[in-house]
């Protein structure tokens, strides 16, 4: 059967736009697809739609029929619309074509009862990254209390049928959601009020259950793409084709599902033989291909047809470009986490996310497919360089039990998630935890700065241990701090072993406080220092700092010291002649 319509009246010879559906889970993406497809099949006559591999094709004729109630001068210049069947960003990211997004336009589904959700925002970021325009389907309007169903009717007509209460409730929720989009830096507006298409994204209220707003959605998709994307949609003969999925089909071996964006594929084209037994097929379509050697195909990459004048090696080089372009994102220093994803597209999306300034996680290794032992081995190289990078971020891939076992043994962390943000959250929690641990370890080496004045008549014990009443003139006196007398030669008198403030033990005391401190010699070999012999009442006591102790302090306690206290560290640095 001939599954594509190629109307001769399409004056500009445009190809069909390709559309993808995205949004948070349960917003109705699948139902919306069913609705767009199903209602039509039932209405029979205006059919012609074909559910293809991974995509549904709507000929222009069909769209014209379904939108006639809108009385738009539905002059369709495109031959039809190809809607990708698998909703969600997984398929969107996978759909690449020559390094850019394959989808010409997207439908972003938002549940009117719930507004923007984490995956809505993730979808938005992906759309921004690919610079893909989209239309918001504000779905489930039928759930507004008191909604009167007008099956498959245009939205303006439907709205007029609703009670004041429903209209009011609708407007309230719409305004809320527009505000939420604004918070994401996006202007949105009801599509029939939108005077600045492009600058402002259009919202089409829909119900995937009763079909209200679906005609509006279809018409808007087609009108907008053919109006603003003429260049992109100009039909070209050169084959442009993207692999959607690689799978094994009984009786056919490994097959690939592809979207043919441009050009014509012929049976017998090198590597090509079509499953549905079309002799040839013209863009844009979703098709299944059987051929030899397909088990090595990677979802998300481009398919190339080798013409009779082409050099096979050149083509192979082009085919590798998709992968090469990702390799260039790897951190030059060789230090970074390992990143693994199911497809080239999702890998790219993850890399893009990790690179963004707010996240900024360096990557040292990338791979596609399940996490195996060899991947853990690669990650373990980092254990010696930077422990926190001995980590695999696994996006939507499985981890083999052997790999898991090895990772546990070696101390390699594997984080798995099917939402990019969750990977980040897990990794961040892990890093924060490591930092906290490091801080605890560092506590031994950090020396807080202090300047102490010995108070007369408060000499409780002259030696073993020294116990004195002191006033903190500057900085923080902390238990564990090494104390010295800054004469021409520094005299180390020991470490603060304890502090008492009004007879209560405390960990530290701050500028202006008067406390009693106990100082014990830090080195038992050395002669213990004594008040009245090695130092006296007019001597000031200071923390004995070093280059190392300053570094540790700065790396772990930067925020714990005030500006004034850091200035004092600087003064001590000069005193101790630290470079
Ligand atoms: P997906 O996860 O985004 O693909 O969401 P589904 O299409 O699976 O829909 C999730 C649930 O919401 C299902 O129970 C649907 O029947 C329901 N649903 C989807 N669209 C609508 C709608 O427009 N109105 C109402 N009332 N329910 C809907």
TrEMBL record:
Source organism, top-level taxon: Eukaryota
Protein's recorded name: Uncharacterized protein
Organism the protein comes from: Rhododendron molle
């Amino acid at each position: 059967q001939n599954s594509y319509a190629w109307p001769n009246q399409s004056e500009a010879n445009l190809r069909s736009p390709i559309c993808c559906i995205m949004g948070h889970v349960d917003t109705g993406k699948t139902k919306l697809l069913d609705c767009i497809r199903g209602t039509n099949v039932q209405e029979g006559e205006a059919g012609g739609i074909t559910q293809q591999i991974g995509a549904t094709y709507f000929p222009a004729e069909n769209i014209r029929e379904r939108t006639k109630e809108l009385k738009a001068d539905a002059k369709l210049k495109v031959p039809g619309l190809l809607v990708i069947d698998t909703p969600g960003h997984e398929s969107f990211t996978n759909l690449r074509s020559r390094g850019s997004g394959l989808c010409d336009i997207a439908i972003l589904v938002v549940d009117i009862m719930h507004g923007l959700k984490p995956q809505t925002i993730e979808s938005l970021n992906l759309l921004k990254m690919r610079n893909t325009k989209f239309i918001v389907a504000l779905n489930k309007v039928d759930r507004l209390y008191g909604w009167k169903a007008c099956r498959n009717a245009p939205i303006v007509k439907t709205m007029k049928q609703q009670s004041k209460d429903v209209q009011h409730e609708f407007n309230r929720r719409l305004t809320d959601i527009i505000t939420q989009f604004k918070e994401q830096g996006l202007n949105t507006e009801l599509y029939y009020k939108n005077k600045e298409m492009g600058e402002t994204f259009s919202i089409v209220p829909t119900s995937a259950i009763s079909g209200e707003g679906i005609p509006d959605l279809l018409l808007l998709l087609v009108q907008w793409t053919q109006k603003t994307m003429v260049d992109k949609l100009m039909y070209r003969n050169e084959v442009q084709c993207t692999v959607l999925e690689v799978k094994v089909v009984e009786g056919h071996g490994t097959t690939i599902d592809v979207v043919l964006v441009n050009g014509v594929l012929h049976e017998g084209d090198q590597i090509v033989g079509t499953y549905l037994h079309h002799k040839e097929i013209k863009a844009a379509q979703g098709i299944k291909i059987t051929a030899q050697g397909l088990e090595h195909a990677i979802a998300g990459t481009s398919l190339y047809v080798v013409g009779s004048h082409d050099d096979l090696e050149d083509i192979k080089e082009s085919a590798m470009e998709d992968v090469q372009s990702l390799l260039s994102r790897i951190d030059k220093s060789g230090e970074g986490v390992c990143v693994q994803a199911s497809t080239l597209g999702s890998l790219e999306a993850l890399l893009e996310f990790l690179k963004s300034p707010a996240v900024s996680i360096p990557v040292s290794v990338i791979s596609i497919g399940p996490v195996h032992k060899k991947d853990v081995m690669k990650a373990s190289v980092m254990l010696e360089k930077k422990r926190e990078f001995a980590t695999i971020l696994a996006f939507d891939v499985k981890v083999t039990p052997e790999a898991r076992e090895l990772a546990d043994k070696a101390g390699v962390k594997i984080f798995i998630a099917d939402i990019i943000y969750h990977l980040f959250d897990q990794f961040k929690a892990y890093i924060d935890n490591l930092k906290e641990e490091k801080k605890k370890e560092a506590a031994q080496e950090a020396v807080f700065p202090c300047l102490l004045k010995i108070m007369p008549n408060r000499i409780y014990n002259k030696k073993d241990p020294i116990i004195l009443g002191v006033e903190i003139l500057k900085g923080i006196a902390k238990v564990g701090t090494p104390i010295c007398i800054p004469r021409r030669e520094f005299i180390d008198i020991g470490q603060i072993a304890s502090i008492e403030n009004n007879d209560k033990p405390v960990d530290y005391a701050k500028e202006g406080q008067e406390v009693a401190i106990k100082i014990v010699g830090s080195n038992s070999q050395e002669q213990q220092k004594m008040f009245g012999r090695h130092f006296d009442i007019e001597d000031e006591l200071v923390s004995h700092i070093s280059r190392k102790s300053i570094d540790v302090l700065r790396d772990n306690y930067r925020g714990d010291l005030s500006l004034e206290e850091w200035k004092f560290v600087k003064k001590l640095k000069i005193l101790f002649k630290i470079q």
